[in-house]
Amino acid sequence: MINPKKLAQLARKWQRVKIATKDDDRCCTISPIAGRGHCTVYTVDGSRFEVPLAYLRSVVFSELLRMAAEEFGFTGNGRITLPCDAAVV
User: What Pfam families does the database record attribute to this sequence (predicted)?
Assistant: First the structure.
């Protein structure tokens, strides 16, 4: 399990990256199917994100998935909801 302090530091780092790339319009397309090499996840506030499959190997993202499994469970027939709001992702 990742240290909560380390998780908070990494979340802040992701926020800085998100702000730096805020003008990038590629993230704003809406499609019912994730693009090639991506998976779709949702946040608790309902925001939808396409995450590159390479992120699944990162410690932070795997910790978010573990927390999601504990909080919401994985039923296999629904969408993956991360236990955070869109500002973190």
Answer: Auxin_inducible
Question: 27 to each of 24, 34, 49, how far by Cα in Å?
Answer: 7, 11, 8
User: Which token pair is 32?
Assistant: 């019912």
Compute the distance between CA of residue 51 and CA of residue 34 in angstroms, rounded to an integer.
9
Residue-level pLDDT at 30: 62
Report the predicted TM-score, pTM, of the whole model to 2 decimal places. 0.58
d(CA 86, CA 65): 15
The whole-number pLDDT of residue 25 equals 46
The domain locations on the chain are 4-20+37-82
Distance CA 7, CA 39 (A): 21
